[in-house]
Design brief:
The chain is of the alpha/beta class. The chain is built from 27 helices and 17 strands. The longest helix is centred in the middle third of the chain and has 28 residues. InterPro entries: FBPtase_class3, Metallo-depent_PP-like.
Length: 660
Amino acid sequence: MTNQHGQVTDLRYLQLLARQYPTVQAASTEIINLQAILNLPKGTEHFMSDLHGEYEAFTHILNNASGAVREKVDILYENSMPQQERRQLATLIYYPEEKLKEVAEHTEDLNEWYKLTLHRLIELCRLVSSKYTRSKVRKALPKDYAYIIDELLNTNYEVHNKRAYYEQIISTIISIDRADDFIVALCEVIKRLVVDHLHIVGDIFDRGPRADRIMDMLMEHHSVDIQWGNHDVLWMGAATGSRTCIATVLNNSITYNNLEVIEVGYGISLRPLALFANEVYSNTDCSCFTAKTLDATSFDAKDLALAARMHKAVAVILFKLEGQTILRNPQFGMNDRLLLDKIDYEKRTVRIGDTDYPLADCDFPTVDPADPYALSEQEAVLMRQLSDAFQNSEKLQRHVKFLYSKGGLYKCYNGNLLFHGCIPMNPDGTLMAFSIGCPPKAGRAFMDHAESVARQGYYAKPGSPEKQFGRDFLWFLWCGRNSPLFGRDHIATFERALLRDQQTWVEEKNPYYRYCAQEEYCEKILAEFGLHGPHCHIINGHIPVKSKDGESPIKANGRLVVIDGGFCRAYQKTTGIAGYTLIYNSWGMRLASHQPFSGLEDAVRENTDIVSTSVLFERMESRIKISETDTGAELKKNAADLQWLLSAYRKGLIKEAHEG
């Protein structure tokens, strides 16, 4: 409890606080510590978005911190070390285990190399740890080497006696064959301290080969938050057993010939789907369902034919299940997307709106024109098998629970508003209201409601109406009309597969994407989320920035930063680059654009980095301190509470614990 001035008045709370700080000395020491921390520089934040399973590029940019690691190497060694040696040192930090093997094969005097490299890594460690408290650095150190690294980081090399001590530690590490392990440990510490906090602004899944590997790395990261993307909530829905979401996941994966993440990554067998497709679709035309590949020559013709049959089988199931979901939820307002019942099989056309369009394919052996959205008996059995497989994938369930624990639809952090898709708006620029399981809600209120229902889809009691509605709502977030994660009028999955007229493929964007380029509307959205001031921004993903056409990721006079620039290789022809990332440190914000990654082997052997162009688009007048951050606000509250604890001790309201 607090009074009108925010002062602690509840003695019960102070008594609980006194258990942690049982004496005047303990409380005083912590106040001094907190006040000192407030004056340290703000930690570095790293923003990434739209990873789409491209785990190699993600790993590299995570390791090099969008160029921040190389920047630190250059700060220390630009005037004393040739560029090639700096590149080798940076590569060692990115990939220590792989680089050590390569160095061992090509270095004559390995012990001398170890000695020089250890000195350099320790200097870098000192540099990147200098803006943190010694306590925080200790917590970042690997358990096995924490004491030794702490000693080396805090030894004064200029003191003669300490110099001998320092050199002896390094010599002993080399002589007992622990140099490789110690170098790996130092490299991991450097990477951890370069970036204090990581933000993933949506779309970890789909298109690229191994989203599961990205999730494994995120689960090991020391400090991360995730704003869900539409592809993420789709997989979250699949993990709940939603047949509609599972069919969509399979349709997406087969479309891009990317089944490795399902079968290898998550151990989900697609043999039942393959058997069903071969039995039911072996004598039908599947040319409309040929998988998209970056290199068709690397795939066997029989495999591609099977993939097309599987694709057609799951697409038809998807059209049925989407119809069932729409009929079950009229509040979604998506009845115009019920298309299977609009097919004229004699004319081979489908009516969309008031127009009949010719179909490229209408040979659907499992569709009953009298009841087009009903699954056949075989389809129902298949979907039960697949639903069980998704729900019983231990790794998928572990990843989805992590997405729920670390994620949400948006985040306000240090003056920035992070979300993946959009804040839905009406054509006149006002916030769009939704009445889906709630009275009309718009803006932040609807985002909060939507996140609550999304959690309900996973955590509600199995078999309950709440569980079913939550599952369906996860699908709505994936592709529903003007969903905040989708941000379009409709998804044209049916049209892309079956209509040749590409005009029917157009998915009209929500007006947000027109208004967000204007500063006044960005400021209104920021205010909706309680953010005010000249250094507040929207950090947005989802819509690839067409860099090759001159489009800028910085919009609305710097109020909006879009960091989807094409991580996914399938998008790179459109964007012209391989992604944007953002670094926000104590000096300001820097946007980096990246060229495609040539691969791990080249990076290790040739010391090649991702070619990046970095632009500092906002520099602060003075260095930002922790006192100016969200963490600082919490520390100030803690210090104020401790001040009241001290007052309670001194007034005799609370007894000090007996020392000794």
